[in-house]
């Protein structure tokens, strides 16, 4: 979930998609630019819409594993659009490097 009122760049969206995680984000231009058609969007502050979207995704995962896999794959492909921006990874407190586009489609420490 990326419930943001303002966003400069949707790094958490790209990172989540690279890991194969379904994304629900605020309907903001910056988040749409990052998440593309692979994410779900809800109006800022519309709690009922967010709740309904999350519940629909939970139901989809249980009832339609094939559709869920297509969603995951679409997110991974979408995140790969930004691989060049982040190919050097991110520095964390322990100097681990995180890859947005690992061979198995999941974030990994390298």
Helix and strand layout, with pairings?
Layout: H1 11-18, E1 24-26, H2 29-35, E2 40-42, H3 47-63, H4 65-80, H5 83-86, E3 98-99, E4 108-109
Parallel strand pairs: 1-2
Antiparallel strand pairs: 3-4
Helix pairs in contact: 1-4
Report on this model:
The chain is mainly alpha-helical and 110 residues long. The protein has helices spanning 11-18, 29-35, 47-63, 65-80, 83-86, and strands at 24-26, 40-42, 98-99, 108-109. Strands 1-2 form a two-stranded parallel ribbon. The chain has a two-stranded antiparallel ribbon with strand order 3-4. Helix 1 crosses helix 4 (65-80). The longest helix is centred in the middle third of the chain and has 17 residues, at 47-63. The chain is flat and about 35 Å long. The two termini are 26 Å apart.
State the major sheet: 2 strands, parallel
Task: Give the strand order, joined by hyphens, for the main sheet.
Answer: 1-2
Sequence of secondary-structure elements: HEHEHHHEE
Q: Based on DSSP secondary structure assignment, what is the total number of beta strands?
A: 4
Q: Work out the helix count.
A: 5
What is the gyration radius calculated from CA atoms?
Answer: 14 Å
Strand content: 5-15%
Helix content, binned percent: 40-55%
Low-confidence stretches: 90-110
How widely separated are the two ends? 26 Å
Shape: flat
Average pLDDT, all residues = 82
């Amino acid at each position: 979930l990326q419930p943001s009122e303002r966003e400069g760049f949707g790094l958490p969206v790209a990172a989540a998609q690279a890991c194969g995680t379904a994304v629900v984000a605020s309907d903001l231009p910056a988040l749409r630019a990052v998440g593309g058609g692979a994410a779900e969007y809800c109006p800022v502050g519309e709690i009922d819409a967010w709740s309904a979207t999350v519940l629909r995704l939970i139901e989809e995962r249980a009832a339609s594993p094939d559709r869920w896999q297509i969603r995951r794959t679409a997110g991974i492909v979408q995140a790969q659009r930004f691989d060049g921006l982040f190919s050097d990874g991110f520095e964390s407190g322990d100097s681990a490097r995180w890859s947005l586009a690992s061979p198995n489609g999941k974030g990994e420490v390298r």
